[in-house]
UniProtKB/TrEMBL annotation:
A Pfam family: HATPase_c
Organism expressing this protein natively: Quisquiliibacterium transsilvanicum
Name of the protein: histidine kinase
Keyword Plastid: no
PANTHER family linked: SENSOR HISTIDINE KINASE, SENSORY HISTIDINE KINASE_PHOSPHATASE NTRB
């Protein structure tokens, strides 16, 4: 069968014979249904599921030439596994041995793609807005500080000079804030081979030193993880921002998990990648407040008293400069920040 090119598809593809047996399936199908080709090939596909009658009906219709191409939604469940809500495209094949090609997409996956596009577009618009705003603020801010310094030299009263010191200190604080807003645009990236586990270990040691009592940072590393091309300093800052946020949400008392995995056939920024790094920062804290859950990567949005609201925005900017994306799922008792970075 000339189907090897279908291995490159993100969607799961299964080819059935005229009697409904599996003739071939791609890697995405093995991952989706959590079964190996050795188990699936030769088996009746419908019987792999507790509710496979709908698959049998498709095979019957294909055999009777009731359609050439058909699209429908279907719920399939394997024993002991979560049910999958799937969008299915069924194509009748002209081969004498192969009756039907089934292409499966999780409906949740389609929603994830829409959400990813929204995150990328929103982050880009926010970056442009913030960069323009920061440049507009920077010049008058320098003038305010300079005027306060000149005024201070003309004042004889120590009490009045206290007021000018307040102006100068507040101007310096705002200048530091503006510098952080402009940080992703200031320096060229120093790209080299990076071991993500070295990055995680550096961050782990720093945060544990900041919270020596009551905080656990557990490792769940994939030892087969290859190196990636990236700016090590930026990646350290990304992971540090996420882990520090988690530690602060836990108030130094709780559990954080650093988990790495290799993801296959991943689409990032509308580009297909054969392999990607998947890094999770998971904590068992109270979760992100629902009111800001959809805006946590926007600049100046913070769920913490006294927070600047820049840490997650900067982390997202740095990751997107690497061609990747940060996603978040949060509920009380579990918050999972997922960093995706292309490997190939």
């Amino acid at each position: 069968m000339r189907l090897r090119g279908l291995e490159l598809l993100a969607s799961a593809v299964v080819v059935l014979s005229t009697d409904g047996r599996v003739r071939w399936l791609n890697l995405a199908a093995e991952q989706l249904f959590e079964l190996s080709a050795k188990v699936a090939v030769g088996a009746f596909f419908a019987r792999l599921f507790v509710n496979g009658a709908a698959v049998d009906a498709l095979v019957e219709d294909a055999r009777a030439n009731a359609f050439g191409l058909k699209r429908q939604e279907m719920l399939l469940e394997r024993a002991g596994h979560e049910p999958l809500t799937l969008d299915i495209i069924a194509t009748v094949l002209e081969s004498p041995d192969d009756a039907l090609l089934l292409e499966f997409r999780e409906l949740d996956q389609r929603l994830r793609h829409d959400r990813e596009s929204h995150i990328i577009d929103s982050a880009q618009a926010n970056r442009e807005l913030v960069r323009n705003l920061a440049h507009e603020i920077k010049n008058p801010l320098g003038g305010i500080r300079g005027a306060a310094q000149l005024l201070e030299t003309e004042l004889d009263s120590p009490g009045l000079r206290e007021y000018t010191q307040v102006i100068i200190k507040e101007a310096d604080r705002l200048q530091a804030l503006v510098d952080r807003l402009l940080e992703p645009h200031r320096h060229p990236r120093a790209v080299a081979d990076v071991n993500i586990h070295e990055v995680c270990e550096r961050v782990r040691s720093v945060v544990l030193a900041e919270h020596p009592m009551g905080l656990r940072i557990e490792r769940d590393y994939d030892a087969s993880m290859p190196e990636l091309r990236g700016d090590k300093a930026q990646l350290i800052q990304v992971v540090l921002n996420l882990v520090r946020n988690a530690a602060q949400a836990l108030r130094g008392q709780g559990r954080i998990v650093l988990k790495t995995r290799v993801a296959r056939q991943v689409t990032l920024a509308k580009q297909r990648h054969r392999l990607a790094l998947e890094l999770h920062v998971i904590d068992n804290g109270p979760g992100i407040p629902e009111a800001i859950r959809d805006r946590i990567f926007h600049p100046l949005v913070s769920g913490r008293e006294g927070g600047s609201g820049l840490g997650l925005s900067l982390a997202q900017s740095f990751v997107q400069q690497h061609g990747g994306l940060i996603e978040c799922e949060s509920r009380p008792g579990r918050t999972d920040f997922r960093i995706l970075l292309p490997l190939s």
